[in-house]
């Protein structure tokens, strides 16, 4: 039996159920002198017949090295170094030197796996604001493995460091992501995506537009430095009122409109789909439905395009002679708008739903998924919105690595288009008060 030719199917690497047993047996077979053929044959027979659950194929694993007895063990080249962990470096522990005692380059390779020419481009996400919303977003992005580095920025240093440490201590259970934090915008340098959640917390009974004046002043302080630190970043605004503040961020950053996006009605649409799914007893992922316009009281439910499994819901209801009227439809839209207020009244704030919503946007942007999301974009010229109005509101947009890669020309009924223009007018009137 040719002991060099017994290997697992489709690979020249061992993939055995019991690696320890297989390695010992094979080592005995490989190191047996050529004249002791009977013992070598017996070792291989024990390996193959003792594990009937394994399928074997033949492969010449020594074709590259030409070795007969055992694989090469000599190594040359430089030492592999790992990134220093911030907390250990502060304690005087040199992680780079320590790693050289555990890892060395493969034989004949002078480079290391972490050399610059081998390393893929790392992805960095910065989250501005370490409140309930910001941390829910950071945690969701972290668990979904969307970034190699996450930078947290907040004005309260003790809380900020506590939040960072709390996530760092879960490193053994999470993807390998570097976490940094600071009160200065310099920590965001080189970001691919900057997510702004900073702002005053919404008070029960307060509309999103009531938050405007308290948040614009804050944006004047944080947006220009963010743009300076990351010239090519995508800017994703979550702070409320999101449509107006997306306009503010666009003006203050100097970025093209395609790279400034508001979270908009992405979450409203999820709430809309959830309520419809509850009524129709289906999974919310199988409901196609959009809320457009303002993320707030004047949002528009696009009933004309609501469908399940390709079937228009309103048409199906009409054909089955089921009763519904405009008042009932408006009641569902109102429930979508009020759902955020209900959560705030019960727990004091919203966090998890917006965290998942923004993480879905981050995935589409960073991974160039070209998915369609109802987000706040520059909407002038769409659906009768005047070209002179630089208003941001939510429309279904295709998102990718370059930002907004187009807005869907969805069909609206005359009533829906009228409500959308009314929503745009409300937002634009607030924008004009800012003097930007």
UniProtKB/TrEMBL annotation:
Domain Lactate/malate dehydrogenase C-terminal as annotated: residue spans: 265-429
* Keyword vocabulary terms for this entry: NAD, Oxidoreductase, Signal
**Which pathway does it serve?**
Fermentation; pyruvate fermentation to lactate; (S)-lactate from pyruvate: step 1/1
Extract the CDD domains matched here: LDH_1
What GO molecular function terms would the record report? Answer: L-lactate dehydrogenase (NAD+) activity
User: What's the catalysed reaction?
Assistant: (S)-lactate + NAD(+) = pyruvate + NADH + H(+)
Q: Where is the signal peptide?
A: 1-22
Gene Ontology CC, one term: cytoplasm
Q: What class of enzyme is it?
A: oxidoreductase
Family annotation (SUPFAM superfamilies): LDH C-terminal domain-like (SSF56327), NAD(P)-binding Rossmann-fold domains (SSF51735)
Q: Which Pfam families match?
A: Ldh_1_C, Ldh_1_N
Query: What EC number(s) has UniProt assigned to this enzyme?
Result: 1.1.1.27
Q: What's a single GO BP term from this record?
A: carboxylic acid metabolic process
| Chain ranges of the Lactate/malate dehydrogenase N-terminal domain | 123-262
InterPro entries xrefs: L-lactate/malate_DH (IPR001557), L-lactate_DH (IPR011304), L-lactate_DH_AS (IPR018177), Lactate/malate_DH_C (IPR022383), Lactate/malate_DH_N (IPR001236), Lactate_DH/Glyco_Ohase_4_C (IPR015955), NAD(P)-bd_dom_sf (IPR036291)
What is the similarity comment for this entry? Belongs to the LDH/MDH superfamily. LDH family.
Q: Which NCBIfam families match?
A: L-LDH-NAD
The protein's name: L-lactate dehydrogenase
Name its species. Zea mays (Maize)
């Amino acid at each position: 039996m040719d002991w060099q030719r017994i290997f697992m199917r489709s690979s020249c690497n061992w993939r055995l159920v019991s690696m320890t047993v297989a390695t010992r047996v094979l080592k005995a077979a490989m190191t047996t002198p050529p004249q002791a053929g009977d013992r070598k044959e017996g070792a291989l027979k024990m390996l193959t017949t003792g594990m009937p659950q394994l399928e074997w194929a033949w492969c010449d694993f020594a074709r590259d090295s030409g070795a007969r007895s055992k694989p090469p063990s000599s190594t040359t080249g430089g030492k592999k170094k790992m990134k220093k962990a911030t907390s250990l470096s502060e304690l005087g522990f040199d992680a780079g030197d320590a790693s050289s005692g555990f890892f060395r380059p493969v034989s004949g390779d002078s480079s290391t796996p972490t050399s610059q020419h081998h390393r893929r481009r790392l992805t960095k996400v910065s989250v501005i604001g370490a409140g309930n919303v910001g941390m829910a977003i950071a945690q969701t992005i972290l668990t979904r493995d969307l970034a190699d580095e996450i930078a947290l920025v907040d004005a309260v240093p003790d809380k900020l460091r506590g939040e960072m440490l709390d996530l760092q201590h879960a490193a053994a259970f999470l993807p390998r992501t570097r976490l940094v934090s600071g009160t200065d915008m310099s920590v965001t340098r080189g970001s691919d995506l900057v997510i702004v959640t900073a702002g005053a917390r919404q008070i029960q009974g307060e509309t999103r537009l009531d938050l405007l004046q308290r948040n614009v002043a804050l944006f004047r302080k944080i947006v220009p430095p963010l743009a300076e630190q990351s010239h090519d970043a995508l800017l994703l605004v979550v702070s409320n009122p999101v449509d107006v503040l997306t306009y503010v961020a666009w003006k203050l950053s100097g970025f093209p409109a395609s790279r400034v996006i508001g979270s908009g009605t992405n979450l409203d649409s999820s709430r809309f789909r959830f309520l419809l799914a509850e009524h129709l007893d289906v999974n919310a992922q199988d409901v196609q439905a959009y809320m457009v316009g303002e993320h707030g009281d004047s949002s528009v439910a696009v009933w004309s395009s609501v469908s399940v499994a390709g079937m228009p819901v309103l048409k199906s209801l009409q054909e089955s002679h089921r009763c519904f009227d405009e008042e009932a439809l408006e009641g569902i839209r109102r429930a979508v708008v009020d759902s955020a207020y209900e959560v705030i009244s019960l727990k004091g704030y919203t966090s998890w739903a917006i965290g998942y919503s923004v993480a879905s946007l981050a995935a589409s942007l960073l991974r160039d998924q070209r998915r369609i999301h109802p987000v706040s974009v520059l909407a002038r010229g769409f659906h009768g919105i005047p070209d002179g109005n630089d208003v941001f509101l939510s429309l279904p947009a295709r998102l990718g690595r370059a930002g907004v890669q187009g807005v869907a020309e969805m069909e609206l009924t005359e009533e829906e288009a009228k409500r959308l223009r009314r929503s745009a007018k409300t937002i634009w009137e607030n924008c004009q008060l800012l003097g930007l």
